[in-house]
Specification:
The complex is a heterodimer of chains A (337) and B (202). Chain A is an all-alpha fold and 337 residues long. Chain A has one domain. Chain A is 68% helix and 2% strand. Chain A is built from 12 helices and 2 strands, in the order αααββααααααααα. Chain A has a two-stranded antiparallel sheet with strand order 1-2. In chain A, a hairpin with a 2-residue loop joins β1 and β2. In chain A, α1 crosses α10, α4 packs antiparallel against α10 and α10 crosses α11. The longest helix of chain A is centred in the N-terminal third of the chain and has 39 residues. Chain A is globular, with a radius of gyration of 21 Å. By secondary structure, chain B is an alpha+beta fold. Chain B is built from 8 helices and 5 strands; from the N terminus they run ααβααββαββααα. Chain B has a 3-stranded antiparallel β-sheet. A two-stranded antiparallel ribbon of chain B has the order 1-4. Classes of the chains: A mainly alpha (337), B alpha+beta (202). Chains A and B meet through α1 of A and α2 of B.
């Protein structure tokens, strides 16, 4: 009985911490991205609000919240509001299976810094990634606007094609680790002493492409191509209703997928114990933010593919490569492992 | 027969380029170089770059102060000028040269002693395209352009500048600009601290 109460309290604390950290980080990633994008283009980024523009996310949030709520005519109002939650919830729920560090002991109980230690964690990630498409799709459908609708259709096509590749890419890592549990995957990497990016470089590159596509980042941001579709599926939303979509898709989704990628390919929290007891957490965050840095770097460098090219690229090139990679890995494990 | 050189976009990458994402890496290096560079922008309301000497800004009138060109000296006797006031002779040359002539409103009267006096010289800057043809057309080097470029106003009527405004500009900003050495930037040193060494491709 005592055990159950302890578990409940710890889980509640974990959920609160993860929610607070991810939403806060999501807000501050806007500042980071604007600053980074500015400096990539030899500009300064936000400088006016607070020191180094650090209060800019708060000012943006305040501005978005005080906007007049405009509801366009002819919309499907239930779906219109539901789409916001459908976009935000899967993005936050992705963090449920992100292991932030190694397990440690409090009061004689072993505590794992993960909200839900599922044994099908990677499958869960794919599921939530696909769920995120519904938010976009409903937003486009409910808005009664051709731009939003085209944008959401593009996103649906993108998710359908890239989910397949993502699955096959991650499957080769799961084969190597022999488990879908994130703790087992990381422990397998620590045990073998090699990060899986060395065994599976092709798979990592495929995963990176899918990460960019799933989170609507350049060069695959066809669903919100500013030049053609204004901003695509969220064009009819205003105020904080609008603010949720980029927060969920551009920041929370990217952050969660970067964390998953660092678990799958970079050994999660594995690293030399040079920061004392927090070493694992620091390594994990460093890897995640390193990947995030790369994603932002790519975003602010490359131009956008055409819509047909993106889907063609996935089916014609990425999928065969990922299947060949998977079969090769399977043969390797069968004969050598 | 004219020969036309046909340029075709070569959209097929080489095998090495497409496998190793060489074109991606090229782009990424360029942005990384920019990231390590100092920002080249200026914080506009806080720091302002001085416009170059040949900048075409708000119009001004040079005043009657004894530095007139010989063309004015010839007809000086027929004009009723005052010291420190505009040296305009109301010849309408500026209006003739202007691509949008209706923006000028020039009026002159004959004084009792027979001389000519300019009583009105208005320019509606909302119609002006700042081509500078009026400045070139002025035979007495009266009309000029200063480096004032912040000309936003709250009402349309405020965008019309009158002869006394132009006299003021002529005596202050336009005089400063006139006395500058002729080069692209007023202060190259200050510009170099902001933007780095300037290379000219002449």
């Amino acid at each position: 009985m005592n055990d159950i109460i302890f578990t409940a309290i710890v889980t509640a604390i974990k959920i609160l911490v993860v929610l607070a950290v991810t939403l806060g980080l999501g807000a501050y990633l806007t500042w980071y991205e604007r600053k980074f994008a500015g400096h990539l283009q030899a500009r300064r980024g936000p400088t006016v609000v607070g020191p180094f523009g650090l209060l800019q996310p708060l000012a943006d949030g305040l501005k978005l919240m005080t906007k007049a709520p405009i509801i366009p005519r002819g919309i499907d109002i239930k779906l219109y509001y539901m789409a916001i939650m459908m976009a935000l919830v899967p993005a936050i729920m992705l963090f449920a299976v992100v292991p932030f560090g190694p397990s440690f002991k409090i009061l004689g109980h072993e505590v794992k810094p993960i909200v839900a230690n599922l044994n099908i964690a990677i499958l869960y990630v794919f599921a939530m990634g696909s769920m995120a498409a519904y938010g976009t799709l409903f937003a486009g459908w409910a808005s009664n606007s051709k731009y939003a609708f085209i944008g959401s259709l593009r996103k649906a096509a993108l998710i359908v094609s890239y989910e397949v590749v993502l699955g096959f890419a991650a499957l080769s890592v799961i084969l190597l680790a022999g488990s879908m549990n994130v703790f087992d995957i990381v422990n397998a990497q620590i045990k073998s002493g090699v990060w899986y990016i060395l065994y599976q470089p092709v798979s990592f590159i495929l995963f990176l492409f899918c990460l960019l596509a799933e989170s609507g980042r350049v060069p695959f941001d066809i669903q919100e191509a500013e030049a053609e579709l204004v901003t695509g599926y969220n064009v009819e939303y205003g105020g904080m209703k609008f603010g949720i979509f980029p927060l969920a898709e551009w920041y929370l989704n990217v952050l969660a997928l970067c964390a998953i990628a660092s678990v799958l390919y970079f050994g999660g929290w594995a690293g030399p114990h040079i920061f004392g007891p927090f070493s694992g957490f620091i390594w994990f965050l460093a890897k995640t933010f390193g990947l995030l840095f790369f994603v932002l770097w790519v975003h602010w460098t490359l131009p956008r593919y055409q819509a047909k090219d993106v889907v063609e690229f996935a089916w014609k090139y990425l999928l065969p490569i990922s299947i060949i990679n998977l079969i090769g890995t399977a043969f390797f494990i069968y004969f050598k492992g | 027969m004219i020969k036309i050189k046909k340029l075709r976009r070569d959209d097929s990458l080489g095998p090495l380029e497409s496998v190793l994402f060489l074109d991606f890496i090229k782009g990424l290096t360029i942005t990384m170089k920019n990231l390590l560079r100092k920002p080249i922008t200026t914080q506009y309301p806080k720091e302002k770059i001085t416009p170059p000497k040949r900048f075409r800004g708000k119009h001004g009138h040079f005043v009657y102060d004894g530095q007139e060109p010989p063309s004015l000296k010839a007809i000086e006797g027929f004009m009723s000028f005052e010291k420190g006031k505009s040296r305009c002779v109301a010849c309408y040359m500026c209006q003739t040269a202007c691509p949008m002539p209706t923006l000028f409103r020039i009026e002159a009267v004959q004084m009792p002693d027979g001389t000519k006096k300019v009583v009105r010289f208005d320019m509606n800057l909302l119609n002006c395209l700042f081509c500078g043809l009026c400045v070139d057309a002025c035979p007495v080097e009266c009309l000029t352009m200063s480096d004032i470029h912040e000309m936003a106003v709250y009402r349309r009527s405020q965008a019309v500048i009158h002869i006394d405004d132009m006299e003021k500009i002529g005596a202050t900003n336009a005089t400063v600009v006139r006395n500058l050495p002729d080069r692209i930037w007023r202060d190259d040193k200050e510009r170099e601290t902001l933007w780095g060494k300037v290379k000219w491709n002449f």
